[in-house]
Amino acid sequence: MATTLTHTDFDFAGQESVYHGKVRDVYNILDKYMVMVATDRISAFDVILPEGIPYKGQVLNQIAEFFLDATSDIVPNWKIAVPDPMVTVGIKCEPLKIEMIVRGYLTGSAWREYKAGAREICGVPLPDGMRENERFPHPILTPTTKADEGHDENISREEIIARGIVAEDIYKQVERYALALFERGQQMAADRGLILVDTKYEFGLHDGKVILIDEIHTPDSSRYFYADGYEERFEKGEEQRQLSKEFVRQWLIAHDFMGKPGQTVPEMTPEYCEEVSRRYIELYEHITGRKFIPAEEYDLPLRIFRNVSDCLANL
Fold it and tell me: Any residues with CB less than 8 A from the CB of 2 and at least 6 apart, and which?
C-alpha cells in the first residue's frame, strides 16, 4: 500500500503556532500566512478514523485548488500558492464561527432528520411528502456553528445574527457568496456528468473583507451524485450512485459505528483503505477532467518541508 501522511510536526521559519484539525494541519506563519497541509487522515461522525487513506491529502488539496481558481471571480479566496501537492499556502484570516451548508437535495443527515419527523432545519421549513434524494425547488442554507471540539450544531440565520456570532451585514454577504458558489459548483459538476448535491463553505475576514477560506467542493466537504440514472433511481426509491464520503459513513453505520460513546471503529483493512483511495481518485478525475498523477512519496514530510520552506522564503 502507498505511504500515507497521518501526522505532521513541522517547524517552518517564522512559525507562530500549529493547529491539528480532523484532516488538515494548519501552520501560522508570522501571523500573516497559513500553511495548510492536507493529510491522509479521514474523519466521519466527527471522529478521526485510525487508518490513513493513500493519496487522499493530495486529492483534497488539488480539488480545492481547482475550485478556488475557478471561483475567484465570485469571491476572493485565501490561496496564495500550492507549493506541494498536499499543501496550500494562503492569507491568514479571522475565521467566521459558522459553516455555510448549502443543500440542493434532501439526503444525508437532512434526510435522516426529515425521516424522523423534522419539518424544519436551521429555521428553513420543509414541505411534507418529500422523498430521499429529492431535489429542493431552490437550494437551501442550513448553517452550523463551528465547534473547536466535538460536534458542530445546526443554527438558524436568525440565531446567528441575534447572538452576534456574525454581524448581519457580513452574514448577508456570506449568504450571497455561498449560494453563488454552489450555483457555479453545480454548473461545473453538470458539465462533467455529476450532480453537486450539497456542500459546505467557510469564510473569514481579512482587513474587514470577506474571504473564502479552507477547501471547496472536495469529497470531504461535498456530496456528488452521478447524473446518469439519477431520475430512474429516484423514481424506484433506489440508492443513488455517488462520489462522496457518504459511502464511508454508510460503511461505518453498517458496522454499528456512528461516533457514539462506547462504539468501536470497525477494522479498516489495507484493502478497504485502497478502495476508499480509488474512490477519492475517481472523484478527482471525474470532477476536474484531469488525470490524477500520484506525487513522489520518497519521504512525504521531507518533501513537504522543502517545498513549503522554498515557498515561504519567496513570499
Answer: 54, 55, 277, 294, 297
